[in-house]
Amino acid sequence: MKKTIIASILVTTFFGAMAQGSDKTTDAHDNPAVAQSIEDKRFERRALEAGTWIMPQVMYERMAQVAFDTFGGNATNTVYYYAKPMTYNAAMVTGNNNSPYVHTYHNIEDGPLVVEMPAATDTNSFFGTFLTSWHVPLVDVGPDGADEGKGGKYLIVPEGYEGNTEGYIAVEQSTNRGYISIRSLTKTTSEEDMARSAEYIKGLKIYPLGGEAVTNHIVLDGVDYEGHIKFDASFWESAHKAINEELIKADEKAFYGMMKLIGIEKGKPFEPTDAQAEILLHAIVQLKAEIAHDFTYYAPRLWGEQSQWTSPVDKEMMSTNATYVDDNWNDYSSRGTTFTYYFAPPASLADSKSTTYIKGVLDSKGRPMSGDYDYKLHIANHEDVPASRFYSFLTYSMDNGAYIAGADKIGVASNETDFVINADGSVSIHWSSNCDGSDYTNCMPITAGEEWFSLFRMYGPSETWFEFVPPSIERIEK
After folding, report:
1. Residues 6+ positions from 223 with CB-CB distance below 8 Å
2. Measured distance CA(402)–CA(398) in Å, rounded
């Protein structure tokens, strides 16, 4: 009898709970506000992941479209270049002011393009790379590249191209759009060497195969170029343009499906409702914070507890040659972080011997670095830095990855005439929002209230460069 009563109670309790849960579910479905909340949260979740995935394309779109809009030119026969070392006006991400940059932003949708590369000379050469719009490196150029410094003609063709490529170094590109990123290498940055570099750059030509061999060379110096990602409503406009102009990556269609769910689809207009636009804006602000967090912590420290300096990128970039695709996974999240703050990895990424970069994004106590404080780095012996050519420090904003806006000195380098080596052979590097009002040597301006980071570049690094433990950047306590 007791068993029967207990069983009856359990059954009654179970079905009562079922009924109560069913009522709650029905209430949720019958409540428009609850239903809308579910849809809005899902929409934002899709936007965050889709935004992370499309980040490399938005970076390319910004680099190329801002160049077209600001300087003119087109995607078939234009070379953009700096005739002098870059200043803060060149607001591209993590740029290098020790050698002028040279770029093309090209499109092979209408046919292959010819690129004529000049031969290296005793005073001038190129170090650069052909890349897709996803920033996948294809082939390096110059003395360390496919032409071995002898110069020659490259031919950018689509994958599976069956035309005649005899006499060319063929570069198969899996995307419609791509770019060439080159650094023009000179002995110094003197006016004489910069004038010689500008003339040498004019030997670089790009034009359609079978077309007129005419190239438009455009100088970028002294003009604001905001070639970095904007984390505002324009982000989604750039994403929509990229989806429509670029070939579909067949192995990543799930991500295109995610883009579709937020209203961005190839061949269709992007017309979010006011409510969706508000969610998209909130999502991109949140995504900016997530990307900055990942950039701060995703790269491994190279010297453990001895130093806060890290690899500039995570190990996945190195192991996949910047594709972020393995046989077993697609690390779109780390790829999105990397190509928010970087562009143009070389094809020889894993075994590059010309330059070594390390990143300083946390101070000696593991704190993000802010323009509200002054900072220093002290190298006990200048000769200990394992760089046979020279070394440099450059400073960037965490907000957009570009140079500090308005800074009159965006970096310091050991081969510059104003670089100060102390009497005892040591070197002191400083960062301050008041460099001019201090007695700091080798001081780079930072902005009060703005977080920043630095890249330490060693040119001509020794094979044992990692045996040198770089001192951490220290906050100057006052």
Report:
1. 70, 71, 89
2. 8
Q: Which residue has the tokens 């292959």?
A: 112
Q: Tokens in use for 193? A: 């060497």
Question: Token digits for 278?
Answer: 């508000």
Strand (E) or helix (H) holding 475: strand 474-476
Neighbouring C-beta atoms of residue 9, cutoff 10 Å: 10
φ, ψ of residue 9 to 5 degrees: the values are -65, -45
Residue type, position 264, single letter: I
Confirm if 309 and 301 have CB atoms less than 8 A apart.
Answer: yes
Q: For 125, phi and psi rounded to 5 degrees? A: -160, 170
Return the axis-axis angle of helices 32-71 and 2-30, rounded to nearest 10°.
40
Distances in whole angstroms, Cα of residue 73 to Cα of each of 32, 103, 268, 364: 52, 12, 27, 46
User: pLDDT tens across 245-291, in order?
Assistant: 999 999 999 999 999 999 999 999 999 999 999 999 999 999 999 99
Q: Which two tokens stand for residue 276?
A: 């969706």
End-to-end alpha-carbon separation of the chain, Å? 82
99, 416 contact by CB (below 8 A): no
